[in-house]
Amino acid sequence: MTRSATSSRKRGAAPKAAPSGTGASRPGVLWAAPAAAFFALFAVVPLIMVAVLSFAAWDGLSDPEFAGLANWRKLLDDPVMVKSLWLSVLLTGLGVIVQTPLSILLGVWAAGHQRNRAVLSAVYFVPLLLSIAAVSVLWRALLDPNLGVPAQATWLFGDGNLFGTQTTAIGVLVFVSTWQFTPLHTLIYQGAARAVPRVLYQAAEIDGAGRVRQFFHITLPQLRNAVITSMILMVVGGLTTFDTVLILTQGGPGSDTTISAFYMYQKAFKSFDYGAASAIALLLVLVSTLISLVVVRLSGYDKMRSTMEGL
């Protein structure tokens, strides 16, 4: 074969395809070092200190003394502690039941591109900008049994004291939490709904599916990842709620709204029993982690794969 023929064949040959995956490389470990250091300093180290204190007797002034399992035995025999843990789970469950469907509906509605939806969504997200303490003080004033709205509408609220019974007090806590945190979860669902491919709805319209059928057969399945993420945030947030109870009910009436986080505060800053308070804190971490893992496991979230797995 002549040199000219060989060169022309080389010029006509198709270039070799580049190996897949070589277009981008994963970031090095150093990229994660600042975040890992921050997490270790402000999360891991305090958690280790709390775990150590849970096995010690300490009043906050003298030196801690090793107490073994005394704090844990005391908590297991404490009826208020058992009740507070149950109340924490109850409030968390009620929050998930109320906020999840409400957030999904509002998020899907807010995903529309009409101007009026954008304006109403911006107004609706205002509670998310306020601190928990400010929101609690606001609703404490509005629901005051002497000067608040219930006192002026006894035909609806009876004697007007919504903080006088366990049922109404828990209802107030659920309502206030829903009012403040539903916008956060609505925002999650709004972003997830806008990520649903439009071609799915177009195909459904061709098949004659209406809005309701499209919602249940297209939108909800596509929001599965967002639902699990939102629920985990609700669980962790619900089990660690403190400010709302402190300002609105102060654990009352009696101990009927004394959740575990508030009971931890009482043990630490009123009884000066930091060992028992640390044990409660560690127990809350364990319960939150366990519930989150159960949600992830039962939902199959750990087996889900994204279309983009990162670099």
UniProtKB/TrEMBL annotation:
Keywords: Cell membrane, Membrane, Transmembrane, Transmembrane helix, Transport
PROSITE patterns on file: ABC_TM1 (PS50928)
Lipid bilayer topology: Multi-pass membrane protein
Region annotation (Disordered) ranges: 1-25
Classification via InterPro entries: ABC_transporter_permease, MetI-like, MetI-like_sf
A GO-annotated cellular component: plasma membrane
Main location class: membrane
UniProt signal peptide: none
Domain ABC transmembrane type-1: 85-295
Presence of keyword ATP-binding: no
Domain of life: Bacteria
Residues spanning the membrane: 35-58, 85-110, 122-142, 162-181, 226-248, 274-296
Cell compartments where the protein resides: Cell membrane
GO BP, one annotated term: transmembrane transport
Keyword presence, DNA-binding: no
Family, per entry: Belongs to the binding-protein-dependent transport system permease family.
Name listed for the protein in its UniProt record: Sugar ABC transporter permease
